[in-house]
Amino acid sequence: MTSHDSLSPPIPEREDLVAGLHARGVCYLAPTPQGDERELSDEALIAGLAQSGNARLRFALAALFLAHPELAECAAQVEPALPTAARRVLRRQYLAAMYLQRMWRTRLRAHFGDQPAIAPRYLSAEESPTGAALPPPDAMHGKLGLHHLCEDSPFNDWSSYEQVVELLLNQPCGPEVLIPVNGAE
Prior knowledge:
Blueprint: H1 3-7, H2 14-23, H3 42-51, H4 55-67, H5 71-78, H6 84-103, H7 105-112, H8 143-151, H9 157-169
Helix pairs in contact: 3-4, 3-5, 3-6, 4-6, 4-9, 6-8
């Protein structure tokens, strides 16, 4: 156990994480919040999703960054304090969102309007969750990087990321429910 592992606050309950996502306009996961869930800061939500034992919640980090690219900076601040496994998850989902944002630029812009680009981060072999250097975000409009990121996984992550985008763009709530984050208006 590293020193990060022993200092980590408890992981929020699944219902609190789902409610935090719903409050930020990522509402494709069930159950629908009842209103009695604990309110989570952006930092607590990102850390909780990265540490979740539920794969759908971990993949929802990529959806959160696609809906709120401004949270990518928050993720970079949260990441060093996470346990090693959660740091790897956060980096993987950050990178996936960065590549997906380039791949799905037109549809995301039509759905959410103009948004800032997710900054390139964790691309070097030392920082990459794959242990190998990854392509820049715009190489083949993000496809090359996402391919390299996904081939490191024993699962069909490519399909999971396509599903994240489709669920985000076709969810029951629309971008009009997005709340400002970090005090932004």
